[in-house]
Amino acid sequence: MSSHREAPAISKDPVADNTDVYAFVTPGNTVTIIANYLPAEAPAGGPNFYEFDDDVRYGIHIDNDGDGLPDVTYQFRFTTTITNPDTFLYNTGPIDALDSRNWNRRQTYSVVKVGRNTNPRISYVGRDLPCPPCNIGPRSTPNYETLAAATVRTLGDGTKAFAGQRADPFFVDLGSVFDLGTLRPVESLHLIPTANAAGIDSLKTSNVHTLAIQVPISALTRDGSVPSDPMSELAVLGVWAGAERQKAFVRDEHKRHGAGPWVQVSRLGNPLFNEVIVPMAEKDEWNARSPYLDKRFAKYVAQPELARLLPVLYPGVFPNLAGVTADRADLLAILLTGIPAGIIPGFQNFTGSTQADMLRLNIAIPPATSPNRLGLLGSDLAGFPNGRRLTDDAVTVELRAVAGATYPLVNPSYTPDGAVAVIEDGTFNNPGRVFLGDFPYIGTPYSGYAVPAA
Amino acid sequence: MADLSRRTFLSRGSVTAVGAIGALSAGPAVLAAAATAVAGAGEEAGAEDLVALEGPMFVHVRDAAAGEVEVLVDETSVVFKDQALVSKLQRATK
Fold this sequence. Notes:
The structure holds 2 protein chains of 2 kinds. By secondary structure, chain A is of the alpha+beta class. Chain A is built from 9 helices and 12 strands. The longest helix of chain A is centred in the C-terminal third of the chain and has 12 residues. By secondary structure, chain B is α+β, with helices and mostly antiparallel strands. Chain B is built from 4 helices and 3 strands, in the order αααβββα. Chain B has a 3-stranded antiparallel sheet with strand order 1-2-3, with helices on one face.
């Protein structure tokens, strides 16, 4: 999965597990950034429904000068409250308002904005902001969309914010890709062949917990401008998210105590970076590091294991890819530095020589009127890997890129194998995914009543 | 600290351990003072020197052989060497 349970340590700490990050330009000269946590929530998972952890510090980071360090960070902390100590229930009646007395266990959150070069450096921009409840069912959470929409708030710096349960927009056929890399639509060509079949979206009824912000572009650029020239270095932002826990933690009878510096336990910029690029033995370390230190992992991008596996798993299908021995400068650019000017006409998202896994968004590229799920691979400059939209097919884009689709960008004499243009896991167009027309855009969570646990 | 036993150490937590390195008050600012206080380690702090903490303070013996100790409080930590303190902590757990 993009980053759902992608590393050994964080797979045991789901409330801190950052599953996906999205960043895209939105109306009103704003950028919307969405960071999801808590992978593969079963909607019916009560009576203790999913929630953020009061002991985790969640963060969305923006780098505006290309050094892989955050220039602007939004930190989220949560507070959980039980309003009725005499019941085992999450709710004792319909939750029809944010102040409903029937809602027993609820969360609020605060947002701290940290500016690297601002005065003051740290400022509270939101306190006691409400989260919606989980989507339980028509009796407990009627009019869920209205209830959730009522939790969208405008912070002290003009940023819109939302924090709560949402439908996971990520789609992938986990059952196939983790079964020795087979892709159902073309698995007759696999080393261990079976009949071709349609892809199965493993996350099509899963929820996540979302942090979403919509920030004026002028609040994120290094000079406070709203760039209109896509070729300007001011137009590119690096985005990633993460989660931190305090270094020491003690369970003392029924209480829990934390102390010491915050240490990062999860992070995510580009989808699938830690999942597919970094060897398992180093995944936990990758999660603990900051992007500016990613040079250490560049060798795994330059010689990706998946590119060596594809010709083995699909004999005779990738002969050209099998012959590539040079470092993959195309992937190094896409994932670690951004694509420099002169490669794709009218486009760049280059952030300089510092190798850092960040989702790079050129904010001078306006939203596409007809988005292509393949983003840049589909000649849609507003899509992944120029930022990432909720509908972008990150799995197919990265699969095809690793398989050689983007190698001609740096080696024009190279011809991608014929299969590269058609390989995919077959999970796009899941009919269950519905997005909102306005912030926070990400869809209403699946109801526990409608999607019972297996 | 004469009555310090394993049970009282565990129940009283790290505040007891802190007492051995000098008088500390709550908050990050105290951490710098902690290292200074350690320079004079060997002096026993009295009960009157102990100041209530707003939150927990954890003492992490990072390297017992080297006497390296990390004190974590609030959102910060400080590392220093105090072999006498480490020896006391080790004795307290036996």
